[in-house]
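Researcher: I'm comparing several assemblies side by side, and this is the next one on my list. It has 375 residues spread over two chains. Same procedure as the others: predict the full complex and return the structure.
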Amino acid sequence: MSSSTTNQHILSPGSICGKLTAFLERQTKRDIEPDLDIFAAGLVSSLFALELVVHIESTFDVAIGGPDLRLDNFRTVDRMTELVLRLRGESDD
Amino acid sequence: MKQRHVTVLGAGVMGTSIAALAVGHGLPVTLVDVDRAVLERARDEVTRHLRLARLMGVQTGTDVAELRTTVELADVADADVVVEAVTELADVKAKVLAEISALIGPEALVLTNTSAIPVDELAGAVAHPERTVGAHFMNPPYLIKTVEVIRGPRSSAAALAVARDFLASMGREVVVVGDGPGFVINRVLQRMINEAARIADEGLATPEEIDLLFTGCLGHRTGPLATADLIGLDNVVDSLRVLRDRTGDQGYEPSALLLAKVADGDFGRKTGRGFYEHRGTK
């Protein structure tokens, strides 16, 4: 796993949110609001959850493990954006 | 009680996920396959399964037991429980079961994760048929708590008790049923998948529409064709043939669409395409 602190450019919350929304809309063929719980809404299955994690890791160059690896962090685009910002150390920007 | 040594035979979809279930519950597992390259990938698969289990909140313990892999059956002669999860072909399963049963102790439990082959037919191949019980795990076994357990006519009460205890130690709940082609689930499910594939082939409805009727009207978690993609269409065809050959019921004759997809290498989720596209699955 590559270090998440080197050789990366700054991403704004808006751009992370936009990338995640575009990915989920491609997968589900539905419009995704940033506060929609995609699991509760039945848009994706539990098996998709891991694909989502792997996609986020590779897209945003972060490693998700330990207590962060729980479904609640991936229910909405807003929460995924928060997680990515925190893991990239950009939450205070 | 001493810790059980678990051996899983076959490092395919079910073998790797059953291994993940066991090591995730602190039981050391030796995973056996004939193919070293398959075993190499299996380690990554088990890690992936454990991540998904943790993500879904079903893997809460931090103590993950050791996973060993080997191509030598002789390495697992000390197994207490053998879970057989090789290809759904009766002669392949019978050959593996005969070999392993000649190596392990007379007290070891043999659980066959057969999809449709009657347990008693497989028990005929082993040294101690009374120690053979069917355990039909769903995919993925760590997310689906219930296991269909099959008591063959020669399965002993003692073996069944060990099977119950072993599965309970991994947090599983069992429903014990009698023996026969496809048992309960696959006698119904494989027929349903086959008919759904025929309906799609006839153009009466798309796979999405068929599945939407089962999820939307009947409350199924996934429709028959999404379920087929999850099982693996190669396994569905193998199971249908087992059912057709043992029941004489032509309704189990694999549909042309299923056969075409398997011929094209489109096995479902595990290859990225089946009735649906599964982008980024691997």
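Model: For your comparison table: Chain B has a mean pLDDT of 94.
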